[in-house]
């Protein structure tokens, strides 16, 4: 007989407290701006406390308008998928009870931070459950990593993070319908969880566990349609803003493509960045597919999710500082080795400070005396690319040499894998050895 729930929850209590500590530290990081600094762009950048949450309250007219239904120019519509838009709507209703519009903006930020704090704590606890009793404390990286503390409240990404971890846990426990619903909601929150569909497909192809995969995909599609179709019908222009913005957006901060454009490289700096990004992502995904089907032992789900997500980030035309929140739980679940993780964290922290110092030196502020130039900034851009590339290389090494995988010690196969765990190979490109 299983022990009571409160007994089973006891091992998770310290991790929950550490996650709450991380959430609190993230709030402290932005205190200088919360007390007035957001109204001065220079102090926002030099104080390293920028957030999208406060300015979007004004720029998207959330004090008077509702996301997607707003009577505003097309480029002023909320540029996020519908779950995030409705999260913003619900918080806006509460924030409108404050005094003037500035006080409402601060309250909008505070309430959003409370929600994101809960999402961080829940995400950490779910990650601990996903990792299993032998590696529960790996979730401490998600709770207290410096990059998480610095980037936690730049945007609403922690909402998608909690949904993604919940999806993984549901899949691990073979609750395919629930996993699908959570996946569909995660994709309707931030687009990056779409990469996990490819990971599930590749492992399904190797193991031939088609029914769970199809059930999950059906539930995901149903959940995505359920939250999107009403807006597609009644607020088409507002709904499609995210997709138009994503398609038309040019190369932006953090992307390696910005370096190539800035330096005027032939082809890489002059060709259409959307085509370059899609083509390079397709090549990396093809490599991940071949790796999955040719590895001597079926890779773990977390390994393929990490590789797919890292490939998506490295080839994207924008790589915002908060994107680290997407990757860190999957990087840890894929390969919980502290040395490459720590090296990556150094690179992410350097990028966090570099981007704001770079922006303060750019037009229209032009405060070169307070910031950094192109060459210094691009060391931070390539620092992230190189350190993530190093982690990817180690994960590939673990897949090709499963005996080096620290997660697969003892009799463990893939405790996150759900129906893939201990599944025999049905299709590979080379004979498998177990």
Number of helices: 20
Q: Helical residue percent?
A: 55-70%
Mean pLDDT: 94
Strand content: under 5%
Secondary structure tally: strands: 0
Task: Classify the secondary structure makeup into a structural class.
Answer: mainly alpha
Shape: globular
Order of helices and strands: HHHHHHHHHHHHHHHHHHHH
The unreliable regions are: none
Largest sheet: none
What is the terminal-to-terminal distance? 34 Å
- What is Rg? 22 Å
Task: Give an overview of the whole structure.
Helix 2 (13-29) runs antiparallel to helix 7 (101-131), helix 17 runs antiparallel to helix 18 (324-334) and helix 19 runs antiparallel to helix 20 (374-400). It is built from 20 helices and no strands. The mean pLDDT is 94. The protein is mostly helical and 434 residues long.
Per-chain topology:
Blueprint: H1 5-9, H2 13-29, H3 31-34, H4 41-46, H5 53-59, H6 82-95, H7 101-131, H8 140-144, H9 146-151, H10 157-172, H11 176-187, H12 195-207, H13 210-234, H14 236-248, H15 256-263, H16 273-294, H17 301-315, H18 324-334, H19 338-360, H20 374-400
Helix pairs in contact: 2-7, 5-7, 6-7, 7-10, 10-11, 11-13, 12-17, 13-14, 16-17, 17-18, 17-20, 19-20
